[in-house]
Design brief:
binds adenosine-5'-diphosphate, Ac/propionate_kinase, single chain, eight-stranded mixed β-sheet, alpha/beta, binds magnesium ion, magnesium ion binding, ATP binding, Acetate kinase, metal-binding, 390 residues, Nucleotidyltransferase, domain 5, binds acetylphosphate, five-stranded mixed β-sheet
Length: 390
């Protein structure tokens, strides 16, 4: 029995999964190195047991090496047949998983300026995996792919048409998460899955997706992973006139990039933290204001996507904030009774799977991006080497 390793190299963490290769991969372990930097933490979870180790300073390369070493005993000599990678940006032409070739990796490198917090780390994960597991099939699963079927009005900006042809489009991200949620709806709530559903993926990065019969028709993120919701450190929706103004004030592209990606959002507004847990626990008025801005924008985005769908049959919350932050859900939904959205306060406080008290179901579904990556790797194994999953 061979194994699949999944890699999700993000801006501040690396997440891995270890799966027995099968049509539906069987999870054996998952792990992450969190808080990459001066005081990183290694977590491994297997067979219901979780161990946490403070590992001190670690960058992406060191973190990945620690994860691979920690998983080695669990492999028990079994080979890694495929490594599945989360790649945030695939550009206009990629609408599903791809086996990574040197040419494709070079092409994906050119998209790094569109996702500077993610794409370079995703690709260094690919290079590290190629060196560590040279015999494994390397497979990419893309955040953008799930959204490639957007109708034109939701895929374009109102720029001269040549920019659309040149790839300046509303891509949308978090597609692995939305793919997983669409799959869970199809199995657990087939009646809702056939209808109009908004999924709010609220993590360190945050976006919302409008699903019509399980397909993405609109997303709050656009060309880059900056637009839409304010995030941990990203600005979210911003009048482009502000960027022009800042340029006129003499800020360089690099300085504006750092401002919009790393110093804004919850961190910039609160001046305290990018972390929703910290803000909800704080007594500082700036923390409350940052949360209020987040929940106000969340309500606006839900309203906007409900219009894009022409109605709403269900709302789903996922991601670290979506799954756990009851006050965030409550503040946003307090504005949305007119859509038939009403919370059951006790169910909401308990992060229950169904938290509605009104006519439109409101669900909390933990996401699993790793499983979507593992499935992509398993399918690539079946086509490239049919005996590998036996
Ligand atoms: N119990 C909780 N209450 C409020 N926020 C939480 C809770 N647990 C996690 N979060 C928030 O979720 C966010 C991280 O989400 P996650 O989906 O894990 O991030 P990533 O995008 O890095 O995968 C952080 O802002 C964190 O504070
Ligand atoms: C695309 C994106 O924002 O990803 P993440 O939530 O992992 O930062
Ligand atoms: Mg995330």
């Amino acid at each position: 029995m061979s194994l699949i390793l999944t890699l999700n190299a993000g801006s501040s963490s690396i997440k891995v999964g270890l799966y027995a290769a099968a049509d539906e991969p069987r999870e054996e372990a998952r792990g992450q190195v969190e808080a990459l930097g001066p005081a990183a933490r290694l977590e491994i979870e297997t067979g219901g047991e979780r161990t946490v180790t403070e590992i001190g300073p670690a960058d992406h390369a060191a973190g990945l090496a620690r994860l691979v070493a920690a998983l080695a005993p669990l492999r028990a000599g079994r080979p890694i047949a495929a490594v599945g990678h989360r790649i945030v940006h695939g550009g206009p032409d990629i609408d599903g998983p791809r086996v990574l070739t040197p040419d494709l990796i070079d092409h994906l490198d050119t998209l790094s300026p569109l996702a500077p917090l993610h794409q370079p780390h995703n690709l260094s994960g690919v290079r590290a995996a190629l060196a560590e597991f040279p015999d494994a099939v390397q497979v990419a699963a893309f955040d953008t792919a799930f959204h490639r079927g957007h109708p034109w009005v939701n895929d374009t900006f109102a720029l001269p048409r040549r920019f659309y042809a040149a790839g300046v489009r509303r891509y949308g991200f978090h597609g692995l998460s939305y793919d997983y949620i669409a799959g869970r709806l199809a199995t657990d709530h087939p009646d809702l899955a056939a209808g109009r559903v908004i999924v709010a993926h609220l993590g360190n990065g945050a976006s919302l997706c409008a699903l019509e019969a399980g397909r993405s028709v609109a997303s709050t993120m656009g060309f880059s992973a900056l637009d839409g919701m304010p995030m941990g450190t990203r600005v979210g929706q911003l009048d482009p006139g502000v960027v022009l103004y800042l340029m006129g004030q003499g800020m360089t592209a690099a300085e504006i990039t750092r401002l919009l990606y790393s110093e804004s959002g919850l961190k910039g507004l609160s001046g305290i933290s990018h972390d929703m847990r910290v803000l909800l626990a704080s007594d500082a008025p700036e923390a409350a204001e940052a949360v209020a801005y987040f929940t106000f924008r969340l309500a606006r985005e839900i309203g906007g996507l409900a219009a894009a769908l022409g109605g709403l049959d269900a709302l789903v919350f996922t991601g670290g904030i979506g799954e756990h932050a009851a006050p965030v859900r409550a503040q946003a939904l307090a504005r949305l009774g007119f859509l038939g959205l009403a919370l059951d306060p006790a169910a909401n406080a308990a992060n229950a799977p169904a938290i509605h008290a009104g006519p439109v179901p409101i669900l909390v579904i933990p996401t699993d991006e790793e499983r979507i990556i593992a499935r992509a790797a398993a399918r690539a194994l079946l086509t490239s080497a049919p005996d590998q999953t036996k």
